[in-house]
Specification:
By secondary structure, this protein is an all-alpha fold. It is elongated.
């Protein structure tokens, strides 16, 4: 197994299908000037529940069980 997740596999399959090869950045000036691209993602999952099955149930607060 070479790929842990399906998007990774699909990325390499697409590159193989369109015959694209990437070159390693060896010119330090390009890296220092910031001429590079990419994407980034920041995510934070937060869920707050209040129902009678939770350990920290607050009966004075509205129940959020559905």
């Amino acid at each position: 197994m070479y790929y842990y997740i399906l998007p990774d596999f699909m990325w390499y399959a697409m590159l193989k299908h369109i015959h694209i090869r990437f070159e390693l950045l060896t010119d330090i000036d390009i890296v220092e000037r910031g001429i590079r691209g990419g994407f980034s993602q920041c995510s934070d999952r937060y869920v707050q529940a209040n129902n009678k099955y939770m350990r920290l149930y607050g009966p004075s607060i509205k129940s959020t069980f559905s």
